[in-house]
């Protein structure tokens, strides 16, 4: 009886830890969602029960309450349950909520960190989140708080010199750009990275003033990471060639 909360990495199926691969092989029940690459299920044992809890076309994803219930029920049946979550299980992943929930029933849990999209999607697109002389720090914000609002920290972020990485922010792109614009940052470079590290990754580069209209043509979709900062200009196309990034849909 145990729950393992495991990071599946950002999409590229090689960007997973050895520990995650071992645990996937050991688990008796695996719950995974849309952001975890389903190719990783090849490491599962043939006897494992595999449950998809993400969104399907035309249907809602399984609610958090239902996920908690499935995890608990299986743990109480003395199973080793593995929750495979995209990126790192904690970073905007509600991993701690699932851990707290089952621990309250006396069930042992473990958390296996994963490679978060917050860093790896920019890297994959050739945008370093820090670079000496360009950016001394990076902040990772959600575009979507529990109340479905932008976080108050976004206003502080727009004032800072940090690289600002926003997860779940694409639907709020115009609002976020308006906040940066109010700080006089209309020329600040911005990148949108869709499906970072996947073979069909797409990247759009613009500025605070241009990116909204650019994306109304290019229509990049979720999952996507937004990056605001001068580091976006460090993007090197030779680096991109090296990592086989083929889909450059726009350059500044
Ligand atoms: N725990 C995850 C994040 C979960 S929140 C992690 O550490 O990566 C979900 C958001 O993550 C998405 O809306 C998107 O903003 C971002 N995301 C996850 N995978 C991504 C990917 N491969 N490329 C771009 N963004 C991604």
Structure overview:
With 252 residues, the protein is an alpha/beta fold. It has two domains: 2-112, Cobalt-precorrin-4 Transmethylase, domain 1 (3-Layer(aba) Sandwich), CATH 3.40.1010; 117-251, Methyltransferase, Cobalt-precorrin-4 Transmethylase, Domain 2 (2-Layer Sandwich). It is 28% helix and 20% strand. It is built from eight helices and ten strands. It has helices at residues 18-26, 64-76, 95-103, 117-124, 153-159, 173-182, 211-218, 237-242, and strands at residues 2-7, 29-32, 49-52, 80-85, 109-112, 138-142, 163-167, 189-194, 202-207, 224-228. The strands form two sheets. It has a five-stranded parallel β-sheet with strand order 3-2-4-1-5, with helices on both faces. A five-stranded mixed β-sheet has the order 6-7-10-8-9, sandwiched between helices. The longest helix has 13 residues, at 64-76. The chain is elongated. The relative contact order is 0.15. The model has no long low-confidence stretch (mean pLDDT 92). S-adenosyl-L-homocysteine binds next to helix 4 and strand 10.
- Largest sheet features: 5 strands, parallel
What is the first-to-last residue Cα distance? 53 Å
Unreliable spans: none
Briefly note the CATH topology name of the largest domain.
Methyltransferase, Cobalt-precorrin-4 Transmethylase, Domain 2
């Amino acid at each position: 009886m145990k729950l393992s909360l495991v990071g599946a990495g950002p999409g590229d199926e090689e960007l997973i830890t050895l520990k995650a691969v071992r645990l996937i092989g050991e688990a008796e029940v695996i719950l995974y969602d849309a952001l975890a690459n389903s190719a990783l299920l090849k490491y599962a044992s043939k006897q494992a029960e595999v449950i998809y809890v993400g969104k399907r076309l035309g249907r809602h994803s399984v609610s958090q309450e239902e996920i908690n219930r499935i995890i608990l029920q299986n743990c109480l049946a003395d199973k080793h349950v593995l929750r495979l979550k995209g990126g790192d299980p904690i970073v905007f992943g509600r991993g701690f909520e699932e851990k707290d929930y089952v621990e309250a029933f006396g069930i042992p849990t473990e958390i296996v960190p994963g490679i978060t999209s917050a860093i790896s999607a920019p890297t994959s697109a050739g945008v370093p989140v820090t670079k000496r002389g360009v950016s001394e720090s990076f902040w990772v914000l959600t575009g979507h708080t529990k109340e479905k609002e932008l976080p108050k920290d976004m206003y502080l972020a727009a004032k800072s010199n940090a690289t600002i990485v926003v997860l779940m922010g694409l639907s709020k792109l115009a609002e976020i750009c308006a906040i940066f614009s109010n700080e006089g940052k209309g020329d600040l470079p911005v990148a949108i990275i869709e499906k970072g590290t996947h073979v069909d990754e797409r990247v759009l580069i613009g500025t605070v003033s241009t990116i909204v209209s650019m994306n109304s043509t290019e229509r990049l979709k979720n999952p996507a990471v937004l990056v605001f900062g001068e580091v976006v200009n460090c993007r090197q196309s030779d680096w991109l060639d090296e990592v086989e990034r083929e889909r450059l849909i726009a350059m500044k």
